[in-house]
Specification:
single chain, 20 strands, three-stranded antiparallel sheet, 13-stranded mixed sheet
């Protein structure tokens, strides 16, 4: 029996953040799919034979395409392609061929079998329940009242039983990380066994892990706080640390790897417990702090924090807020609990999450991996992204430039989708940086999945789990307008983008041309109208009144919040 492997740090009082193990948030936040056939009662019992079957189909490359996934999991080819696209969006190595593939080349490249089985295993993960905001009185002041159709829907649909009556707030980052680590701690033995292989001639009892197989665990865990920049997992493993790069590393007993990672998880959980304890005693914790729900102006830093690779914008109310790339501390952004505001994030991003917002307009620059919009009401989201998932939203509009079909999951009502409708000077530069193809826009192909999220920890009424989510309808071309990002957002160096880089469908172009022509005719009539001065003043007053009414009715009054501080 080999000697016990110590965690990367031995003293809880002097832990170096770079030496601590962390769960990779991306698979848990953006990689879970509401597809019942991907959730197994006993993942190991299902996935071990599945892995062997898939490897037999591709013995040389160990990579499988959508057809093989469809046949093995008994799902449609569209859902199999969705599995490939979702896995590609959350993989840990940018060098993986699946990540590098163009949208039309994903199926040809296929997924590595070992990454695929880990991805399928975590589909059984249950998310941590949302918490109540500690300042519930302040939240009540800005959260919208119950929607007018709540009573009608609750009388018709059992899905209303799923929605909590209390206002939802995301769990703290520390609590969420501890929950994910605890899940990995519980299932680590199964995850390691999915990657291990028996020593030739010694049977299944003598499982070993090669350095190459260990790297696949980097899909779920990492060391340090720099995300994908933290390097290969084997660099932190004591049994591979001094391996000769010119010689193949000797495989290590799976039990030894299991023990090493368990020790590190225990150390990380202890560290999280130490960070949470002062908070529970009423003391603030700098690494996991709620931002006061104060007004923010365009040049203010209020409402923004940064936690392990993510920038947070939280609690903005009745304000405008602008963030450029230089204002963000990481490649991911989370916009939480913002109300009656306009938020511009004009930057290249990897991931973006919008949660618990209402009566707001949110512009997300270019998001190369995935966007998730969840538990929002009466929000307009404008984004250019590789993919987007919309969950449990009401009366929201989405103006999209997306390379993949928008996913619609959960309890949604009265959603609308439209083509992308804005630009800013650096948009094309940002699209190129994160790998979004503006010639591909699948905004009008929403893909509704389950009406109930199987990954939440709530109980659901019988018979609801098989229901399909309500899809989104297209915005009528005559109701489509271009969204202008005001000049005061141009704090960054000017770029070359002068127009919307996503081509509009013909019906929307015709509608815009028609509206422009009508506007010109109205202007001409007003200029030529033979009115006396007092009548002109009355007409001008009436136009101002109707314009003001339109500003409030459309929600565009929010764009004027930026002028309050000037």
């Amino acid at each position: 029996m080999s000697e016990p492997i110590e965690p990367s740090t031995s003293s809880s009082s002097t832990k170096d953040p770079a030496s601590l193990i962390h769960p990779r948030r991306e698979p848990f936040e953006h990689g879970l799919l509401s597809i019942p056939k991907l959730i197994f009662a006993d993942p190991t019992q299902t996935l071990v034979p599945l892995k062997h079957k898939l490897i037999e189909q591709s013995p040389s490359t160990h990579r499988v395409n959508a057809a093989a996934i469809s046949e093995s999991l008994q799902i449609s080819i569209d859902l199999a392609r969705l599995v490939l696209d979702s896995l590609a969006s959350v993989l840990h190595l940018e060098s993986d061929p699946l990540v590098q593939a163009k949208p039309d080349g994903v199926d040809e490249v296929g997924a590595d079998v070992h990454d695929l089985v880990l991805f399928l295993y975590i589909q059984s993960y249950k998310k941590l329940l949302p918490r109540t905001h500690k300042d519930s009185a302040a939240v009540a002041d800005v959260w919208p009242s119950t929607s007018a159709f709540d009573g009608y829907l609750s009388a018709l649909s059992p899905l209303q039983l799923v929605r909590s009556n209390s206002r939802r707030f995301v769990p703290s980052q520390a609590d969420e990380e501890a929950h994910q680590l605890s899940y990995l701690q519980k299932h680590l033995g199964n995850l390691v066994s999915l990657l291990a292989e028996p020593v030739e001639g010694e049977g299944e009892e003598s499982l070993v892990l090669t350095m190459e197989r260990l790297e696949h665990l980097g899909f779920l865990i990492q060391f340090g706080d720099k995300g994908s920049e933290s390097g290969h997992l084997s660099q932190y493993a004591p049994f591979f640390a001094n391996s000769d790069p010119d010689m193949p590393a000797v495989p290590v007993p799976a039990a030894q790897v299991h023990e090493w990672i368990l020790n590190n998880i225990a150390s990380a959980l202890e560290n999280i417990s130490e960070r949470i304890s002062p908070k529970e005693n009423g003391l603030p914790s700098s690494s996991d702090q709620d931002v006061p729900m104060a007004d923010a102006c365009t040049s203010s830093t209020k409402g923004s924090t940064c936690v392990r690779g993510s920038s947070f914008i939280e609690g903005i109310s009745k304000s405008s807020l602008v963030r450029h790339a230089s204002d963000l501390k990481g490649p991911s952004v989370k916009v939480l609990n913002c109300h009656d505001s306009v938020i511009y994030i004009l930057a290249p991003l990897r991931y973006a999450t919008v949660y618990g917002c209402s009566d707001a307009t949110i512009v997300l620059g270019a998001v190369g991996k995935a966007v998730r919009i969840e538990h929002c009401e009466r929000v307009h989201v404008i984004t250019a992204a590789n993919r987007i998932c919309i969950a449990n939203c009401r009366e929201c509009m989405f103006f999209l430039g997306v390379n993949q079909r928008p996913l619609i999951v959960g309890d949604n009502h009265k959603l609308q989708v439209a083509p992308y409708n804005t630009f800013y000077s650096q948009l094309e530069e940002h699209l190129s940086e994160v790998g979004i193809d503006a010639t591909i826009n699948r905004w009008n192909e929403p893909l509704p999945l389950g009406a109930v999220d199987p990954h939440d920890s709530l109980s659901h009424p019988a018979g609801v789990s098989d229901a399909q989510a309500e899809s989104a309808i297209r915005v009528d071309p005559d109701q489509f307008t271009t969204f202008l990002i005001p000049n005061w957002c141009g704090g960054e160096p000017h770029g070359s983008t002068k127009v919307n880089p996503f081509p509009l469908p013909e019906a929307y172009v015709e509608s815009q041309d028609r509206n422009q022509k009508n506007l010109g005719e109205v202007k001409q009539l007003l200029r030529e109208a033979p009115l006396e001065d007092n009548r002109k003043r009355e007409l001008s007053t009436a136009l101002h009144v109707y314009f003001k009414d339109w500003l409030y009715a459309s929600g565009n009054i929010r764009q004027l919040y930026c002028l309050q501080g000037e």
